[in-house]
Amino acid sequence: MSVKLEAALLLALAGVSPAMAQADDPAHAASTQYRAARHLGLPGESVKVTPATWNGAHWVFADYLTGKPGEEERQLVMLDEHMRRPPIRVTTGEQEGGVPDILAIGFANADRDKAKELIVILGWQIRHYDVSGTLYDVRILDDWQPGQRALAPVKAAERLFQHYECDCGRRDGPDQIAKVKTIAAVKQVLIRAGYR
Predict the structure, then answer these.
(1) Which residues make Cβ contacts (< 8 Å) with residue 52, sequence separation at least 6?
(2) Cα(158)–Cα(122) distance, rounded to whole angstroms?
(3) Counting Cβ atoms within 10 Å, is residue 76 exposed (0-12), middle (13-18) or buried (19+)?
(4) DSSP 3-state assignment of 113?
(5) Contact of 46 with 37, CB cutoff 8 Å
(6) pTM of this prediction?
(7) CA 50 to CA 120: how far, in whole Å?
(8) Which of 16, 111, 147, 175 is most buried (CB neighbours < 10 A)?
(9) What DSSP string describes 22-81?
(10) Is 100 within 8 Å of 123 (Cβ atoms)?
């Protein structure tokens, strides 16, 4: 039996699709990063990618910086797994004394339809004389529909979260602890609000 056939058989027995197995493979991830960067017209090392399956479709979430030095913003776009369509705008991580990182991407129901919405958690590292830590922001975006060029925020669900929540230590005064800084915590808030 060939190695490829044996690997495919093992994946099938384990219930893992080849596409998802490839997403966990470092060589495939590097290839995906290179293809995403090429599709976006950017150098390979400037793009970070997160392959994911969302509502049954395979996507590649790609983030990269735009803007002049000191004024950069983080762009997050969505590419189909074969990178045949134009990028779909997801969100922009604006400048807040620094450029945010995409800390997490996940999916949960955040409205009344069957499709899951996209959850994006952004984080800014804060380093000032009197305060330091991480500033968090939760963005919830409605499921993609064919023909859309940009995802739309789910405003009602986003209002459940404090905008720019800080997990910070203070020089003078009490520390702040962010309550929602993981996908699991976001899902718990959505469930308590009645979204299942």
Answers:
(1) 23, 58, 59, 60, 61, 105, 107
(2) 13
(3) buried
(4) coil
(5) yes
(6) 0.82
(7) 12
(8) 111
(9) HHHSHHHHHHHHHHHHHHHTS-GGG-EEEEEEETTEEEEEEEEEESSTTS-EEEEEEEET
(10) yes
Cα-trace Rg, the chain: 19
Contact 114, 55 (CB under 8 A): no
Q: Counting every residue, how long is the chain?
A: 196
Q: What is the DSSP string of 153-178?
A: B-HHHHTTS-TTEEEEEESSS--B--
**What's the token pair of residue 27?**
């060589």
pLDDT tens digits for the chain (196 residues)?
Answer: 443 444 443 334 334 344 444 445 666 556 999 999 999 999 999 999 999 999 999 999 999 999 999 899 999 999 999 999 999 999 999 998 889 999 999 999 999 899 999 999 999 999 888 899 999 999 999 999 999 999 999 999 999 998 788 999 988 989 988 999 999 999 999 999 999 8
d(CA 83, CA 186) in angstroms, rounded, equals 30
